[in-house]
Each structure stands twice: as C-alpha cells, then as structure tokens.
Amino acid sequence: MGSRLRELGSGLGYRAELAGVVGEHAGRIDWLEVITEHYLFAPADLREELGELAGRFPVVPHGVEMSIGSAGEVDGVYLDALAALVDEIDAPWFSDHLCFTRTEDVLLGLLAPLPRTRDVARELGRKARRVQDAVGRPFLLENITYYVDLATPLTEAQFIAEVMEHCDCHLLLDLANLDINARNHGFDPLGFLDVIPVERVAQVHLAGGIDGVAGEMSLDSHGAAVPERVWELLDELLSRTAVPATLIERDQNFPDDPAELLADLDRARARLRRPLARDGVADGRA
Ligand SMILES: [Fe+2]
User: Can you tell me the distance from the alpha carbon of 260 to that of 266, in angstroms, rounded to the nearest whole number?
Assistant: First the structure.
C-alpha cells in the first residue's frame, strides 16, 4: 500500500489568468498544481516560467492527456517527457484521471468514463503501477464526472477501490466531482467514502460547478466558489483520515477580486490544520 505523502497544505490550480493573484498573494498559497500538457512539449519560455514557479512553490503536474484507460500501454514518449518534467521541477507527485481521452485514432477532447468491471480495474491498476515506476514519483488518480451512467457490474466507488487493490498509487479525490456525480446519479456521497480506501487519498480537489443544467443536472464547470456541500464533504473526509493536500480548482469565470479565491484557500488550510477527528466527531463541531 502507498505510504503517506508529503504535507503540502492548501494549494491553487495555476492558470495564466491567475498569475497576478499568485504573484501578489504568494504567502496565502502553499503550493501550485499545473496542467502537465501546458508544459510537456512546450517552448523554452514556458518551461522557464514553470521553473520560476517551482523555485517559489512546490509544483505538482496534473495531466489530462495520459489516457490511462485507452487500450494498450501508455505512450512511452509521453511517459519519458513526463518523467523529465517531474524531475526538472522536483515534483512531490503527479496526477491524471481515471478515464480515457483518446481511441486509437481520435482525440476525444474530454475525460470519458470507463466500463466499471473487475477486469478493467485490474488492467488499470497494472498500468498505473507501470506509469508510477516509469516516472519514479507517486502517481495519483482522480475521479471524474460522468453524465451518462452505463449499467456496469461495479459502482464507481467499488471500481475505484478495485483499481487501488491492484496498485500502490494514491487517490486524488475531487470532492466537487463526487458531489456532482452523487446528485446527478442519485447515490449517497458518504456511502462512496465508506467504500473507497480513504487512507489512500493524498490530495483533494475543491471547486464550484453549475446547477440546474437541462433541468436537474449539475456540471463541473470549475467556475465558482466552493459550495457548502463540498466543504461538508471535506469535513467528512477529514473526520475519517488525514489528507496531505487540498487544491482550489478554478478554470473559468475568474473573479476580478481575488478575495473569494483567497478565502477558499484559507478555509481549506484551516480545515487541514484542525486535529484529525475520530469516530465522526471533529474538534469544535458535532
Ligand atoms: Fe478535479
């Protein structure tokens, strides 16, 4: 099983639109997550920018194009480049999604869910181990949102637990995605936490989405402040296990006033610093 990872604290997803916030409020940001593919085969000036960021913060590359769920092995050229990038910035870990983003010939342009069978989970676990070995740092896998739920033998939580059985990687648990999936597909998010190995969660994503799309659906827009429902899920998770790192994800609708983002960063940090709750009862709350 994976060992406990370095405590990074409360981080922010770095986007070009947030460069000013990161520059002016560095003292309120413990670490940064960057999108791997923005820098992987990038020109020298972008790699220099990444090097400067890594000189000021711990930086974690978060990928969207590994496509670990595609048939066959993960592309060796991609893995070599990722290993070099991770070494260059001395990243404490790297992450990508439990999904596929391409078929043999077609780039889908989205994070597509996988058939949730034990065979697929076993194969994903094998490939995740191989990726982690090739890159040489801890590999975290993230739960995605899905808007059509195909009838498959395993629930999403059972599928994730099964993948973790077959590798010693960690989980990046996106609590906004969990909240959205639970509401869109009518399952209990606390029951989800009962099933996944929460002690393997090394990082959390916190974000706001859009409710009321096409009727009752919610979307993971990453374009709003973190809603109370997601903070409650963080409290619930932290009542069950210690988590080394949280991250505020914002991909659009960047606020003119950074106060909202900074408040979310502070709130996450305060949660992480609270003593670990036991038996469902946290310090200072019922
Ligand atoms: Fe996420």
Answer: 10
From ligand 1's centre to the CA of 250, what distance in Å?
10
CA distance 202 to 213: 31
User: Distance between terminal CA atoms of the chain?
Assistant: 32
Question: Ligand 1 center to residue 205 CA distance, Å?
Answer: 5
Q: How far is the CA of 252 from the centre of ligand 1 (A)?
A: 13
Percent above pLDDT 90 for the chain: 74
List, for residues 58-77, the tens digit of each pLDDT value: 999 999 999 998 889 999 99
What pTM does this model have?
Answer: 0.92
Q: Collapse the DSSP code of 203 into the 3-class scheme (helix H, G, I; strand E, B; otherwise coil) and give the result.
A: strand
Q: What percent of the chain has pLDDT above 70? A: 91
Residue type, 189: P
Domains of the chain in start order, with CATH, are 9-273 (3.20.20.150)
> What separation in Å is there between the alpha carbon of 178 and the centre of ligand 1?
10
Question: How many whole angstroms from 60 Cα to the centroid of ligand 1?
Answer: 13
